[in-house]
Amino acid sequence: MERIEFEGAGITIVADALGPQNAPPVLFMHGGGQTRQSWGKAIAQAACHGYRAISVDLRGHGESGWSPDGKYDIEAFSSDIRKIITNFNQPPVLVGASLGGLVGLTLAASPPPPVRGLVLVDVAVHLEEAGTREIGNFMGSAPNGFANLEEAADAVAAYLPHRPRPKDTSGLMRNLRLRADGRLHWHWDPAFTRIDPDAARNFSSGFEAAAKALKLPVLLIRGGRSRVLSPAGAQAFLQLVPQAEYVDVAGADHMVAGDANDSFNEAVLAFLTKHMPLPGR
Questions:
Q1: CATH architecture of structural domain 2-127+203-275
Q2: I need a labelling partner for 26 at 20 to 30 A (CA). Which of 51, 112, 203, 268 fits?
Q3: At what angle do helices 203-213 and 99-109 cross, to 10 degrees?
Q4: What are the tens digits of pLDDT across the range 116-130?
């Protein structure tokens, strides 16, 4: 695994990369509150198949810089990724979960820079308010942090009851930071959780226009148990984007890659093979 630093729109963006440097690039973008490590198995599989797989920490997340003005709108995230793509030797396929998917949708609908394909993971234009509220509630639920790893693990277990609670909680440290108050806090900038109500109200209209503008290959992957993207929401997107392909991953919740990694990787690799075939294959 190669750790890379890119210059985003005024901040440093940290990424992991695997695979041949001159191979067709696939850029993975995580969801809100996640990190580039959410894609560990996915980028390993893409690299094994011959692609250059890059997974970024979006601004305000993981090891990447925080917005100096505290703003985290889609355009701020998209500006970082636009600059990163200019470092690639050819247009990438974008793979984005939740927030990362909306960034990908924005970029794919409004080049330059050019994008070769788009994979949306459990996100589309019309989302379920109850499901998105659950995510927001979790992200804002521990403003004072945690005394230890066990407290953080308890919070995750309550939020993701369908996943077995790990016996070894040390892996959670990838998502926590020890701050000056001596407590463990989630890795994201607290300003990221302060949503602008006006922006939230105008959410669907802007992304609907972007979806209609898509001219490139698109794959929508939905978690079969998702409370964020409903079957109706998925079908509404497919009506907006007639060329889009669709995979429903049974048993997976909103974080599809983590809940059903093999099925997720199979769907993504099939899409890449079809729309960004490797030279000589």
A1: 3-Layer(aba) Sandwich (3.40)
A2: 203
A3: 50
A4: 999 999 999 999 989
